């Protein structure tokens, strides 16, 4: 079962996301609107230290007005390969560089309204990034 898109209108174009409203015809023949968040793809990292502890980062998240403990994660920049994004985000958020990166899998975060696809990676053999003198 699919929905036929009758029209699509972008109503917001921000720094991190776009919002559009698609008018669709349902298999039943009924016409309705779908609000869609267009968001770039992202990565998340299960990073293991030498004792197999998972590294977590503490970040304040405005949408939920809370400080959360999370696995390191971030967006994939234009033209960037996912493994490069893993190394960049892990370095930025934890100060560690992985010697081993393995893809675990991927999934759409909230396909009912968002286009964002997240790839999950395992990073191990971590070494602290050397700071410039």
UniProtKB/TrEMBL annotation:
Its cofactor is Mg(2+). Pfam families: NUDIX (PF00293). One of its GO terms (molecular function) is hydrolase activity. SUPFAM superfamilies: Nudix (SSF55811). One of its GO terms (biological process) is ribose phosphate metabolic process. Keywords: Hydrolase. Residues 38-133 form the Nudix hydrolase domain. This is Nudix hydrolase domain-containing protein. It comes from marine sediment metagenome. The keyword Hydrolase applies. PANTHER family: NUDIX HYDROLASE DOMAIN-CONTAINING PROTEIN (PTHR11839:SF18), UDP/ADP-SUGAR PYROPHOSPHATASE (PTHR11839).
